[in-house]
Amino acid sequence: MSPRSRPVLVEESHRATIFEVFFDLVLVFALTRLIDFMAGDPSALTLFQGFLLVLWFWYAWSCYTWLGNLTRADVGLVRAVMTVAMAAIFVAALVIPDAWRAAGAARGASLTLAAAYLLVRALHLALMFHVGAGDPRYRRQAARFATSTALAWVPLVIGAVFGGTAQTVLWVVAFAVDYGGGRVVTAASLGEVRSASHFAERHNLVLIIALGESLISVGAGAGSAVIRPPVLVAALLGFAVTVCLWWLYFDDAAPAAARVLADAPRHTRRRQQLASDAYTLAHLPLIAGVIYVALGIHEVLAQVAEYAGHAARERLGWGPGVVLYGGAAIYLFGRHLFLRVTVGAAPVRLVAAAVALLLIPVARLLPALAAMALLTVFLVALAAEERWRRSTPAGP
């Protein structure tokens, strides 16, 4: 093996590389394609199918993030293989709008998506064996990991062939086998977190990129009607919602959790468990919440743009209300889980997620613009309350 192809293990001081940020951008491009896919027909089935694909993409990204915390992702063979994986994710993103098809319809898009995901996972397994060349323990774990992953490919491909309801059911089975098997395999021997700062930074970066990309939904939903006052107001409210989501995570939650992860001794199960639960697991609802809030903003802006002349009389309706407020509730639940695992947040923080859900029946009775304003006021109040509580000295 040539020196350039050998994996370079990272140190505690390692930080995210530009190459990894590029990898994150490709992932978020796939997530924005999911928003476009769900916006085309925001039915309950479509929203579920979109969520399933969120699970797929997030799990694939998480696997490469763990790998990049063990060995530098921007060096030698690892970078070359990850570039191919990025190309596969890009292809998968391109075919998302046509990936779910009726039984008997053309199989091209669904098979392409299945093949692309299979390649992404296979390349990760190959890199695990490559990186673990001198570590028998890691190679054994990679072999066990490969077993559940390979088993998941069977329902994945069969579902792509059959289409219809069978495709949805089999793809759920495929993800359950892939992810569930991975959790079982790693439960006894979690991967080492060699750099706490790198691991936290990777998750921070992908979330901030997702929040930034969600603003694209503002432009997509508004279209050329953005110069109309009601549409412009709705767009600014959508921007304010995104700012609040950023604030609720990055102002205090992210730094506090990163400190807890860094303070955990490197070669202990405590650090590995924190990384697995607080970042790999808890960041999934954070990302999913951002996607559904972005979809809800898109739907609200599209409705306001369509009825700009009499927007005050057009109610939001159940669909956009569930997506917009439900997405906020998912995000707030993920934030609570993230803080609960790291800094031991009190269960009372779950009240915010519950309130967001309780506001759905109210929002559906309001005009779309007023419903957006209500969510904005709620999130601003929540952020202000969090800020006030942190600045208030604790009692004796």
Summary of the model, kept short:
Helix content is 77%, strand content 0%.
The biggest sheet, with number of strands, parallel, antiparallel or mixed sense and barrel status, is: none
pLDDT < 50 stretches: none
Q: What's the rounded overall pLDDT mean?
A: 87
Number of E-type strands: 0
- Classify the helix fraction into a percent range: over 70%
> Radius of gyration, Cα only, in angstroms?
22 Å
Provide the structure class.
mainly alpha
SSE topology string: HHHHHHHHHHHHHHHH
Tell the overall outline: globular
Number of helices: 16
Cα distance spanning the termini: 63 Å
Strand content: under 5%
Structure description:
With 396 residues, the protein is an all-alpha fold. Helices cover 77% and strands 0% of the residues. The chain has 16 helices and no strands. The chain has helices spanning 18-40, 44-70, 76-95, 108-131, 136-162, 164-187, 196-214, 216-222, 229-250, 253-263, 269-281, 283-306, 318-342, 350-358, 360-364, 368-391. α2 (44-70) packs parallel to α6 and α5 runs antiparallel to α6 (164-187). The N and C termini lie far apart (63 Å). The relative contact order is 0.10. The model has no long low-confidence stretch (mean pLDDT 87).
Question: What is the topological layout?
Answer:
Blueprint: H1 18-40, H2 44-70, H3 76-95, H4 108-131, H5 136-162, H6 164-187, H7 196-214, H8 216-222, H9 229-250, H10 253-263, H11 269-281, H12 283-306, H13 318-342, H14 350-358, H15 360-364, H16 368-391
Helix pairs in contact: 1-2, 1-3, 1-7, 1-12, 2-4, 2-6, 3-4, 4-5, 5-6, 7-9, 7-10, 7-11, 7-12, 8-12, 9-12, 9-16, 10-11, 10-13, 11-13, 12-13, 13-14
